[in-house]
Amino acid sequence: MSRLLRIAHVPISRHSIRSFGSSCRILDVSKVTLVGRLGADPILRNTSSGKPYYTYTVATNVGAPIEENGKLHPPPTSWHTVFSFNEFQHASLQKLGKGSTVYVEAELEMRPYESSSNSGTKDGNGYKHDRAFLKHQKLNVINRVRPENEQDNSNADD
Q: Which fold has domain 18-157?
C-alpha cells in the first residue's frame, strides 16, 4: 500500500503554490464540455506570428421547451466560439461542415474585454466585462455534415 502512495505522490514546487491557498496549480481545471451543432464551416486563420489556427462555432440548446399559450417554443440557442491551435486536429476540422453534431472539450479562460459601445456609460469608455475564451482540446464527431467546399466538388464530379 505504501508503494502506491509513493507512486501517486506529486511533488509540489514552490512556484506551483498560490499565495492565497495551498492548492497545487497543476491540479486546477477549467474545462467546458459542449455537445451541439456547428453553426458554420470551421474557418482557417493565422495568428499575428503566422501560426495557423481554426475557429468554429457550436450551437447548444439547454432547457425544456417553453410553453406559451399552449404552444411549445424551443429553448434559446447559445453560441460558443472555439479556437483550435492544435495542428494535428486541423485535418479533421477541415472535413466538418455547418450542421455537424460534435462533442467538444475545451479549456475555459476568462479574458477581460471592453466593448466598443459607449452607450449607457458616463465616461464613454464602453462596458468592461470578462469574455470566455474556449481553447479546443478534444473533438468527437457524432454526425458529420460535409463542408460547403467539399459539397461543391462532389457536385462537379456528377
A: OB fold (Dihydrolipoamide Acetyltransferase, E2P) (2.40.50)
* CB burial of residue 92 (10 Å; 0-12, 13-18, 19+): middle
The rounded distance, in Å, linking the Cα atoms of 77 and 63 is 10
- Angle CA 37–58–82, to nearest 5: 145
C-alpha cell at 147: 463542408
Tell me the three cell numbers of residue 12: 509540489
Query: What pTM did the predictor assign?
Result: 0.67
DSSP structural state of residue 150: H
Q: What is the pLDDT of residues 74-93, one digit of tens each?
A: 888 999 999 999 888 899 99
Q: How far apart are CA 2 and CA 8, in angstroms?
A: 10
User: In percent, how much of the chain has pLDDT > 70?
Assistant: 70
